[in-house]
Write a structure and sequence with these properties.
Layout: E1 2-6, H1 10-20, E2 26-31, H2 34-42, E3 46-49, H3 55-62, E4 67-70, H4 74-86, E5 90-93, H5 105-110, E6 114-116, H6 125-135, E7 139-151, H7 166-172, E8 177-181, E9 184-188, E10 195-199, E11 203-209, H8 216-219, E12 224-231, H9 235-244, E13 253-255, E14 258-260, H10 262-270, E15 282-294, E16 297-308, H11 317-334, E17 342-344, H12 346-350, H13 353-365, E18 371-376
Length: 377
């Protein structure tokens, strides 16, 4: 099977290397940054330097491929997925784009293609766990998801390192968060409703609203649902200050006769100081709490993972948890475990025991362990 990974950043690189280790897969990676491709080429992968924002070039690049993994930034994600589906390609997508993926349902079905969207850690693994939890209840009452990718060592002033595209990080602090309360979808500002959350090995983290529920708002029957991002305490307030001061604005301002978007300045200057450097280690923390009823009695299921930078491989935790969820779903698709056509939200697969166990066991073999607790009453 010929597989191509679009985007060779931290996560795309991890995905390409993981799939290349699978017998029977011929893996390529495409990116416009040739420096990113050099390492993969030295490891024996076929690489394609290209501007993937050009639809015609993209169609030519993927024409001979059997499966596409989309690891491009969110601003490019929806159009890339659309282009892939227009060529009839199956896709596993981790691009965190703002558009509704179900808008492409008709196109995917018309072309006989399957696209597993939001296939990372959260959204992605969190969706699988949410649906799996609901499947074990007679009735769902509430769903709470907490997730964060953090540097292992807190460093002043921001106590954060950007593991994704800088613009995608900023977008997380801008995009209004959709929640569900009392059966109705409500909208809150990003960074709103802060709360402190305790974790056994990490201590106190701060959580705030972000727009991570996405397809879950349409697909799962919980009257109350929320998703919050986790950071070290204090980070939220600094990002809120920058946002309110206009540093994340997209409307250009004039600087010495030049039109400059503040968000581009911020991404270039501020977040260049937040890039993960060689030797920097990170961790990923995820908690999914599903509450409801079983046989008429209250039941709470809690799923939790704490993953850390893999020193042996040099793969960062966020790349592991995001990328390996996607590659396990790609393997499930390649093996025919996922055989429905159209846009497939990951929670849909959480209701399918064979797929859920395949992904969970595959992650466990890579040292990504999901702990589960059950509390009655």
């Amino acid at each position: 099977m010929k597989i191509i990974v679009l985007g060779a950043g931290l996560v795309g690189r991890a995905m390409a290397l993981d799939l290349a280790s699978e017998k029977g897969f011929e893996v390529s990676a495409a990116d416009r940054d040739e420096a990113r491709l050099k390492d993969l080429a030295e490891r024996g992968l076929k690489t394609v330097p290209a501007d993937l924002s050009r639809a015609q070039d993209l169609k030519e690049i993927i024409s001979a491929q059997d499966l596409v993994l989309n690891a491009l930034p969110g601003w490019l994600g929806f159009q890339t997925l659309k282009t892939c589906l227009e060529t009839g390609k199956d896709v596993v997508d981790i691009a965190f784009f703002p558009e509704d993926p179900f808008e492409l349902e008709a196109l995917a079905r018309e072309k006989g293609a399957t696209a597993v969207v939001d296939a990372g850690v959260a959204p992605g693994l969190s969706n699988l766990l949410s649906a799996h939890g609901l499947s074990r209840l007679d009735k769902g009452n509430s769903l709470r998801i907490y997730v964060g990718g953090l540097p292992s060592i807190r460093q002043w002033p921001f106590e954060y390192k950007a593991v994704f595209s800088p613009l995608d990080v900023i977008e997380e602090y801008l995009r209004p968060a959709r929640l569900k309360e009392g059966g109705r979808v409500v909208v809150r500002e990003a960074l709103s409703d802060p709360e402190f959350v305790e974790f056994e090995e990490l201590g106190t983290l701060e959580a705030f609203n972000t727009d991570g529920l996405r397809t879950l708002l349409k697909t799962l029957d919980f009257p109350d649902m929320k998703e919050k991002t986790l950071r070290y305490p204090g980070h939220r307030e600094k990002m809120l200050m920058l946002r309110e001061a206009g540093f994340f604005d997209s409307r250009p301002v004039e600087v010495d006769g030049q039109q400059v978007r503040p968000v581009d300045f911020t991404a270039r200057i501020l977040f260049s100081r937040l890039e993960l450097r060689p030797g920097d280690e990170d961790l990923t923390v995820l908690r999914v709490v599903v509450e409801g009823e079983k046989h008429g009695r209250p039941l709470r299921l809690t799923f939790e993972l704490l993953d850390r930078f893999d020193r042996a491989s040099g793969i960062h935790s966020m790349a592991r948890t995001t990328g390996y969820t996607a590659t396990m779903l790609a393997r499930a698709l390649a093996r025919g475990l996922i055989n429905k056509k159209g846009i497939i939200a990951p929670e849909r697969l959480g209701f399918e025991p064979e797929v859920f166990l395949f992904v969970r066991e595959g992650l466990e073999k890579k040292g990504i362990i999901i702990k589960e607790t059950t509390q009655a009453g």
